[in-house]
Amino acid sequence: MEGFLDFYSPRPDELTIGESSICSLDFETTGLYPSRDEIVEIGAVRYRGFKEEKSFGGFIRPSQPIPSEATAVHGIDNSMVADAPSIDERLEDLLSFLEDSILIAHNINFDLSFLDAACRKAGLKMPNFLALDTCSFAKAILKGERGYSLQRLAQVYGLDDGQAHRALDDARTAARLFELILIRIPDYESLPMKKILRLSNTRLFRR
To answer: Stretch 35-51: mean pLDDT, rounded?
Structure first.
């Protein structure tokens, strides 16, 4: 029995926050609907113990022009993505970057649905990530706010949000928000991630 236990590796959801690899993810897109719209910018940042380890990001060239309505939100226009790689050229590297981490994002179902659509179009299987929605987490712990958009919460709690609606900056802001919420939970450092995921009240979309 002792030898067997020596080889036991805990599941990712059994680890504490200090032991876990957390990846904050954000996409900017041509619109709101993954069935017809596309990713135009990737932002992904990996953390361990709230310390940034590495990042993955950049523009993506969509197969369709970026609508002016989308440019008005994130500021990304067609000239900025003209020489960028397609999502197919970066997708496997992105999935490798996200591997073995717990994903967090603000309104995470938006990002997961676009990632799933990109995987389907490329003939790849999207992994079944453990994932946490920082918007749902904020609603569960930071009760009574007038609004729960990432930019509003960043303003209310004094988070440095960089350039709003840009992928890497929003990913980093979501990570700061995650930390701010988490430290309000008693004994959070000793809790397994499965407990934190339950407390977050995240409801993931199912493919």
So the answer is: 96
Mean pLDDT score across all residues of the chain: 94
C-alpha span between 71 and 79 (Å, rounded): 11
* Positive/negative CA dihedral, 65, 69, 75, 58: negative
Q: Which of 46, 61, 165, 176 is catalytic?
A: 165
Q: Is 74 annotated as catalytic?
A: no
pLDDT tens digits along 127-150:
999 999 999 999 999 999 999 999
Q: Where are the alpha helices (DSSP H) in 23-62?
A: none
DSSP per-residue string spanning 62-94: -SSPPPHHHHHHH---HHHHTTSPPHHHHHHHH
> Do residues 106 and 82 lie in contact, with contact meaning Cβ atoms separated by under 8 Å?
no
Distance CA 39, CA 62 (A): 7
